[in-house]
Design brief:
- With 181 residues, the protein is α+β, with helices and mostly antiparallel strands.
- The chain is 26% helix and 33% strand.
- The protein has four helices and eleven strands, in the order αβββαααββββββββ.
- The strands form three sheets. Strands 4-11-9-6 form a four-stranded antiparallel β-sheet, with no helix packed on it. A four-stranded antiparallel β-sheet has the order 8-7-5-10, with no helix packed on it.
- The longest helix is centred in the first third of the chain and has 20 residues.
- It is elongated, with a radius of gyration of 21 Å.
- The N and C termini lie far apart (55 Å).
Length: 181
């Protein structure tokens, strides 16, 4: 592995870590192809960093050592931004032992990555409110993805017991949005 490739890979991994933090994501996985039999596979998550190199017999240990050295020698704010840290436990889990909303049988999960909106436009009334009863097919929120507004329908009839996202918040695929019981 040349020093230029190593420096470029370290910069690439740092950029991914900053994207993870800036967009409040929990995990990001990317494959960077260098040639037919040479690629860099990077998975950055709040739980840690996993780097693999396919082809060419490159030394992954040297890449990780360079990344750690770059982080420790960088100024404090830059090092903190590039460092991947363990995500803090959600308040509901830490305070009362409540179950994970994603595993709740009434959880409505995001069908895509995007930005969730609880109302059709700023100042308009919300599509649903906590405690409100909805019918299957009613629009419960909008997810903007690639400049397209996607109406998300209620998958079943019931009462909205929890709204788990804020208006304008980024959401990931499979993230719990609300609970309908």
């Amino acid at each position: 592995m040349t020093k230029d490739n190593l420096d470029g890979d370290v910069a690439f991994i740092k950029a991914l870590a900053e994207l993870l933090k800036a967009n409040e994501l929990t995990e990001l996985e990317v494959t960077r192809a260098y040639g037919q039999d040479d690629s860099l596979n990077v998975r950055v998550s709040r739980a840690g960093l996993d780097v693999g190199r396919a082809g060419g017999g490159e030394n992954v240990g040297a890449l990780l050592a360079a990344l750690n050295a770059a982080q420790s020698s960088a100024p404090a704010p830059a090092a903190a931004a590039a460092q991947v840290q363990q995500a803090p436990a959600p308040a509901s889990t830490a305070s009362g032992g409540n179950e994970d909303p994603a595993s709740h049988p009434g959880a409505v999960t995001s069908p895509m990555v995007g930005t969730a909106y609880l109302q059709s436009e700023p100042g308009a009334p919300a599509f649903v409110a906590q405690g409100q009863t909805v019918k299957e097919g009613d629009t419960i929120l909008i997810i903007e993805a690639m400049k397209t507004m996607n109406q998300i329908p209620a998958p079943r009839s019931g009462k909205v017991t929890r709204i788990l996202v804020d208006d304008g918040a980024p959401v990931e695929y499979g993230a719990p949005l609300m609970i309908i019981e």
